[in-house]
Amino acid sequence: MSDAIRGATELPAKRENIELQTADGFTLVGELSLPVSGHIAATLVTLHPLPTAGGFMDSHIIRKAAARLPALADVAVLRFNFRGVTSPRGTSGGSFGEGELEQYDLAAAMDFVRERDLPNVWLMGWSFGTEVTLKFGREHPIAGAILLSPPLHRSTAEEVAAWAGGERRLVAIIPELDDYLRPDEAAKRFASVPELEFVAVEGGKHLWVGEAQTYRVLNEVVARLNPMLVPLPRTWPPETTGSL
């Protein structure tokens, strides 16, 4: 019998507490979640919301990506606390870097991914995490980046435009009812990147609260990382109909 996947559901994965070492001398705490099968179709490096507003590696979309996507989509998920951030996993060294010093945190995560030889690497930033992604993600060997609720507070127009014409895919998932940047304005501010994959989510809100919004976001992510596995199942084990 299958059970419905809900907010607290944690599906099977190989989970490992990890530490990341930054070039400026700090230790960050995190977790790597891998598919039990050993087959990794893609790797998702997650960058959490604003630390000074309660963002951390357990912010719910990131926690649910790590809890579900290794089992549902053969996706490895790396999540970690930015410098100075505390979660049940522990506290990362350093202090809030205003979106600038966090470039070293991203670099440490990418060093870890390279050392582990994890394939098909994507970044997923949420809110503040999108600022770090836009400002510094292009420096790293990634397949693409997903921007979840980008506020565009710290990213300059020049930093956004720099993503145009490159090989890295850029996906912006914009909630209709966002507190900071709604679809019409977002379309204008991302117009400098004609290749942008723009997703406006009807009824969506900045914090993506509720299972319906979580399910939509995770489907949009997997549609880029392992599109053969969308739509994601809503139960575990997945229900089968017996038909092809």
Explain the layout of strands and helices:
Layout: E1 3-4, E2 14-21, E3 27-34, E4 42-47, H1 60-73, E5 75-80, E6 86-87, E7 90-91, H2 102-115, E8 121-126, H3 128-136, E9 144-148, H4 157-161, E10 169-175, H5 183-189, E11 197-201, H6 211-225, E12 235-236
Parallel strand pairs: 4-5, 4-8, 8-9, 9-10, 10-11
Antiparallel strand pairs: 1-12, 2-3, 3-5, 6-7
Helix pairs in contact: 1-6
Features:
8-stranded mixed sheet; 12 strands
Poorly predicted ranges (pLDDT <50, ≥5 residues)? none
Query: How many domains make up the coordinates?
Result: 1
Question: Alpha-carbon distance between the termini?
Answer: 20 Å
Order of helices and strands: EEEEHEEEHEHEHEHEHE
Oligomer: single chain
Structural class: alpha/beta
- How large is the share of residues in beta strands? 15-25%
Structure description:
This protein is an alpha/beta fold and 244 residues long. It has one domain (15-223): Alpha/Beta hydrolase fold, catalytic domain (Rossmann fold, 3-Layer(aba) Sandwich). The protein has six helices and twelve strands. It has helices spanning 60-73, 102-115, 128-136, 157-161, 183-189, 211-225, and strands at residues 3-4, 14-21, 27-34, 42-47, 75-80, 86-87, 90-91, 121-126, 144-148, 169-175, 197-201, 235-236. Strands 2-3-5-4-8-9-10-11 form an eight-stranded mixed sheet, sandwiched between helices. Helix 5 links the parallel strand 10 and strand 11 (197-201). Helix 1 (60-73) crosses helix 6 (211-225). The longest helix has 15 residues, at 211-225. It is globular. The two termini are 20 Å apart. The mean pLDDT is 97.
